[in-house]
Amino acid sequence: MQLSTNDWFSILPVLILSGWGMVLLIVELFVPKERAALIGWLSMVGIVGAAIALALLGGPAISGFTGMIVLDGMSAFIGLVGLIAALLTVWVSLNYNRDRRIERGEYYALLLFSTSGILLMAQATNLIVVFLGLELLSIPLYILAGFARPQPESEEAAIKYFLLGAFATGFLVYGIALMYGATGTTDIARIAEVAQTGKNATLLLVGAGLILVGLGFKVAAVPFHMWTPDVYEGAPTPVTGFMSVGAKAAGFASLLRVFFVGLHAVQTDWIPALAVLSALTMIVGNVVALSQTNLKRMLAYSSIAHAGYMLMGLAAGNRAGLSAILFYLLAYAFTNIGAFAVLAVFARSEGEDQTFPQVAGLMRKQPWLAVAMIVFMFSLTGIPPTGGFFGKYYLFMAAVDGNLGWLAIIGVLTSVISAFFYLRVIVDMTMREPEREMPNGLYPALAATLVVTTLGTLVLGVWPGPWLQMAQAGLGLFGG
User: Fold this and answer.
1) 3-class SS letters over 227-240
2) CA-CA distance, 220 to 363, in Å (whole number)?
3) Please, what's the b/e burial string for 63-75 (b: 16 or more CB within 10 A of its CB; e: otherwise)?
4) Beta strands 62-64 and 69-71: pairing type?
5) Nearest to 372 by CA among 449, 273, 473, 316
6) What is the DSSP letter of 351?
7) Digit-coded pLDDT (tens) for 422-463
8) pTM of this prediction?
9) Residue 148 φ/ψ, nearest 5 degrees
10) Mean pLDDT over residues 291-320, rounded?
């Protein structure tokens, strides 16, 4: 097999990330353990390099490896979200890992490998590559979830995530096998051609349902969400933030290609199922979050609910819904990583206090930290002027345009429910007396993370137009 220039260019960002990750593993051998943060700073070189490659190559679509991989506008946009999440996670991790005494250089190499999985899933136009990207994303995340060993909570998070993730991957592979049996191919574009003929439609839809199970686990959609609260609670906080954004971005990238491209001809068969899945995910995520007393578990159920909002865009079955998903992912990346960065401030060597009293009185002790958290809670609720507001607005409008007004109404009502537990955090920060020891100051890298995430959340709310246009431009591959 001879590789062309297009083959190399199409996968260049993935090669930069994974190659630099392997370099870091070698460099880590010669770096003293007490200076492991140096590996974190070096990891940024790979992330920035991949971002430059995406910026230079993310114009006209570049297809490689006989059409199995494509670097187009959508994959560049999803890749941008993944790289932003990775960079911000590195910044949060630098001091968090030291405070928790889990500072090891391989942490950052695993983060780069997982990010390369995000990019590979976004570029996959073949179901085999979707599977490879999913494994490249997931296996490092299994290890990162248990990185705070020997803490029982972290080890429990890793084993639960691994066992359930492997089980979900089995569904995905079986679904791929059934779709191959129905169409004779694993290429998504050729699957679309066979789907138009109506040949083996039942077998095709059964395979699509199993793929939905596998990817639904990755995006934490109901009823494939049971792993989420325990894993989010036990994993190191920066890993939780990265997981909440990166896994969703990769999962929705594959869902868009499989359902909107490969199964576009039979969308009348899968739209009702996705609409019901979206409604259940929004309802369960928001209602169960009401009873949570742990901030990370509350944000875990919040993450489930936001998967439901994004599924609404896919169920709408139109280009407006797809561009709304991309915009929402970008807004969610800034918002959620920012919220977990605030929680990371409270990390101590003996563990983390993740209960609501931990943030009580934060406005009096650390007003800028409290203001940042208020912005993030407003965005998750969908209150202007934040990116979360316009993200939900675009999704609701897409649902209405797709004749799913009832689903948009459920989205609005569940957003009202979510205001209770998001605003509860704000009330605790501003109206209660401090009950715990407060951080005295912020490390520069963590402060930079909070500045970038806060500004990103606000810019997307005040100036959403160009970013939505960028998301729309990224859908050149998609019809409909």
Assistant:
1) CHHHHHHHCCHHHH
2) 32
3) bbbeebbbbbbbb
4) antiparallel
5) 449
6) B
7) 999 999 999 888 776 776 667 889 999 999 999 999 999 999
8) 0.94
9) -85, 20
10) 93
